[in-house]
Amino acid sequence: MKEQTNSNLHVSRAGKTDEFYTDISMIENELRHYREYFKNKVVFCNCDDPAISNFWKYFQINFYMLGLKKLISTHYESDKPSYKLEIIRQDDKIGQLAFLPDYVETPLTGDGDFRSPEAIQLLKEADIVVTNPPFSLFTDYIAQLRAFHKTFLVIGNLNAITYKEVLPSIMANEIWLGYNSGHFWFKVPESYEAKKTDFKIDENGQKWRRMGNICWYTNLDTTQRHEKLTIFKNYSPEIYPKYDNYDAIEVSRVADIPCDYFGVIGVPITYMTRYNPDQFEIVDVKSSGLLLTKKDGTVKSMYKRVLIRNKGGQTHAN
């Protein structure tokens, strides 16, 4: 059996620096919320070298605890044919939670790219896709999952909600965010160029890069997206200015959303981590272009904003 380490490697086919190694704690902290969804399912990790992938490691260790039917993993090889690993449930092993299931390795004829014919055939077989796709290919990756109507749980950047390939599905409540988001440290390879900020080398010489606005994208239902945001502040035009070029008010902090305003409200994209589709509707998302005149007369161009409207089901604090 191949040695496994606490990391997940994915390589961009776009020629960008796109190698990040996902810590297993990040995977465990998110996937613990979805255990009920995996029973009798085929799980596909299609951007994961099984030799070093923590996604593969997590599902292999928890194969029988989760009640999986099958686990498949593939990854991209830049200069040679790749391979797939598969674990198929053995009914006589059910209940043996400490049993580490073995796998079957099969060579692929192609490079294992998630868009290759072989990977697509495996995708068709899968019930749930779980992985950390290359950030530079995220829109291609999500488009493929949507085209094949797949259930998924994948890591991405929060800014992806503004992409034209992702935004319509977000607004239609066909994709939403998972439980965990924020800044996370990822292991990076030795060849990774040192950065002035959000970069460190630990005592073992391992390089790390901290990435901000990291989140999980999914279409598996979560309890979090049904929790209403508690809002209690009252609207006043002196406190909540309107944009110069859009009929909406600016609210720079999610905690300051007024409870008694039912027009369009512009909030930071971090609001999406608290989004409840029963409480608010998403009207639009603007990556740029919203203008706001400040009290001193200067005009400010606002950074990414989600434009929302209260449905009238807000929760008031006592």
TrEMBL record:
<dbReference type="InterPro" id="IPR025247">
    <property type="entry name" value="EcoRI-like_methylase"/>
</dbReference>
<keyword id="KW-0808">Transferase</keyword>
<protein>
    <submittedName>
        <fullName>Modification methylase EcoRI</fullName>
        <ecNumber>2.1.1.72</ecNumber>
    </submittedName>
</protein>
<dbReference type="GO" id="GO:0032259">
    <property type="term" value="P:methylation"/>
</dbReference>
<keyword id="KW-0489">Methyltransferase</keyword>
<dbReference type="GO" id="GO:0003676">
    <property type="term" value="F:nucleic acid binding"/>
</dbReference>
<dbReference type="GO" id="GO:0009007">
    <property type="term" value="F:site-specific DNA-methyltransferase (adenine-specific) activity"/>
</dbReference>
<dbReference type="Pfam" id="PF13651">
    <property type="entry name" value="EcoRI_methylase"/>
</dbReference>
<dbReference type="InterPro" id="IPR002052">
    <property type="entry name" value="DNA_methylase_N6_adenine_CS"/>
</dbReference>
